[in-house]
Amino acid sequence: MTAVLRQLVREHPWLLPVADMARLAVFVGFVTLVLLVGWRARAGWSSPRTRGAVNTLIVYVLAASCATGFFQQEAWPFTHWALVRNVAAKRSASWELQGLDGSGRSWVIDPAVLQPLSPDELGVWMSKSLSALDPASRAAIGRFVLERAEHARQRLVTGRRFAANEWLLGPLAAPYHGHARGAWRTAADVPPTAFVAVRVWALEWNVEERFQDEQRVTRTLRLEYRDRDAG
Amino acid sequence: MTQAERPGWWAAFWFRPESPRNLAAARILLAATGLWMVLSRPDLPSVETVPGLWASVGMAPRLRFFAVFGLDVERALYAVLHVALALALLGVVPRLTCFLSGLLLYHFGPFETLHWTTNPYLRGFTIPALGLLILSVAPCGDALALRRGSGRAGPAPAWQYRWPLALVEVLFSQIYFFAGYAKIVANGLDWITAANIRGHLLVLNQVLTASPQESWGYVVAQYSLLCGAIAWAGMLFDLGFPLVLVSRVARWLFLPAALVFHVLNSVLFRIFFQNVGLLLVFVDWNAVLRSRRAG
Fold it and tell me: At residue B61, what are phi and psi to the nearest 5 degrees?
């Protein structure tokens, strides 16, 4: 079913926005039935018309949630819940941010500097979009990462929280679904002077080979941005 | 009661008398989960400012989630969401605040992911959005609400307190059931193997930890029997979870098991489930509060 629909969308790209509007219609239908129950309940819960509206809402929610689940299609907030659905891949990929200080020394940048975006979400977009962007757009992204990294570095060296998601709740903030352990914990994890450049690396590896040897990772430079003002 | 008078299974499941406290507890849990999520993403609207990211989102997904406003308006709406969730939690104007919370959770839920998917189902907003909208037309403020005084039982049990709670419970149970179903549909029995679990343990720890060789996932991955047991136990747990909807015994088995399941998922696979607190909607809070008062 899913494969057939994917093929259909590939052949007819105009179906994508149509599908989005159909999914919106599913949500609008849900809200409409919710409001209908609210309207009917004004006459009292004992009214048969109220009970009828409740039955209609229940059937609709069951139909929408079961259709998305059994056909493995999304109409979020009705969804397929396909968590870790696929068989584990033999090869995997990720990405890493690196900052350079004025002396040219490189430091790993904690991806939490980019919150509220999670590393996963941004990684998907970068791997899909980065190479297709023009130089000005790539520079804009590089500048953005450098500014975020430097701002976070300054917060960390002065003893403040640098991850945006922890501004209010600190360590009690909800982690992302795939929760990574942060690379920055203390001021010793960052340079005492400003970052002057950032690099984005694409990482790729064979899962079993990396299990045997942690160093067996292929690194490809995807973006380098240097702050001209820093010289 | 004669056979003719006995309610059918549909009415017995959806419309049996329920305590207003249990529905109110669901309101509190849904609002608290939603509030926890938005307080944990205090700068969510700022994703609009990432160069190129928001521009890559098509018009149809934006229209679908009404993500068409500028940053200032989004920040104002996000502030309204915080207030609405807090009031819903406290039971202040509960129907209006639940409705507003549900709509705004629908609006903001996809902000983290909209640049690559319109299905943000693992970001903690899904069940609170649906649940609060359902509760918005139910008498969810008849107990455990600020204006009525905390701890009061409220009116007598009635069917109007049952169907919204049951609907939230069904939606929550589907998380596990369809997670299991999706694996079987996509891969058949190939998913339920030691090799597959080992692969996931390795990949997830390689991607998500700075030193995977020091992770518990790597330790477990070395024991094939343990990996096989995790595969089968996980699948049986997923597919069996909906039994909690109809069996009290199943609740005693599956709810503690769910807690263990999520702790192990977090430690071994680095997968965190933000809606874990919603497992508490299956607890009979009326009985708990009554026994505490009696004790």
Answer: -60, -35
Contacts of A115 in chain B (CB under 8 A): 41, 43
**A88 at interface of B, judged by CB pairs closer than 8 A:** yes
Does A115 contact chain B (CB < 8 Å)? yes
User: pLDDT 10s digit of each residue in chain A, 231 long?
Assistant: 667 777 888 888 888 899 999 999 999 999 999 999 999 999 999 999 999 999 999 999 999 999 999 999 999 999 999 999 999 999 999 999 999 999 999 999 999 999 999 988 888 888 788 888 899 999 999 999 999 999 999 999 999 999 999 999 999 999 999 888 788 999 999 999 999 999 999 999 999 999 999 999 999 999 999 987 654
CB contact under 8 A, A34 and B123: no
Q: In the structure encoding, which two tokens stand for residue A172, read together?
A: 């009690």
Kindly determine whether residue B191 and residue A87, on different chains, have CB atoms separated by under 8 Å: yes
Give the β-pairing of A195-206 and A91-101: antiparallel
Comparing CA positions, the residue from B262, B267, B288 lying closest to residue B277 is B262
Q: What are phi and psi of A196, to 5 degrees?
A: -115, -10
B137–chain A Cβ distance below 8 A for any pair? yes
Whole-angstrom Cα distance, residue B158 to residue B137? 15
Residue type, B266: S
Burial class (CB in 10 A: 0-12, 13-18, 19+), A2: middle
Q: Determine the 3-state secondary structure of A38 from DSSP.
A: helix
The nearest CA of chain A is from the CA of B295 a distance in Å of 33
Place of tokens 């020091």: B214
Question: Distance, in angstroms, between A53 CA and closest chain B CA?
Answer: 11
Torsion sign across C-alpha atoms A74, A80, A81, A86:
negative
Q: Is A118 on the interface with B (CB under 8 A)?
A: yes
Supply the ipTM of this predicted assembly: 0.95
Q: Residue B187 in contact with residue B235, Cβ under 8 Å?
A: no
Residue numbers in A near B159 (CB within 8 A)? 45
Tokens matching residue B190: 């190939």
Q: A9: Cβ–Cβ under 8 A, 6 or more apart, which residues?
A: A15, A16, A19
Query: Helix and strand tally (H, E) in chain B?
Result: 12, 0
The token pair at B267 is 């430690």
pTM of the model: 0.94
Query: Which of A41, A128, A143 lies closest to B137 in CB terms?
Result: A41
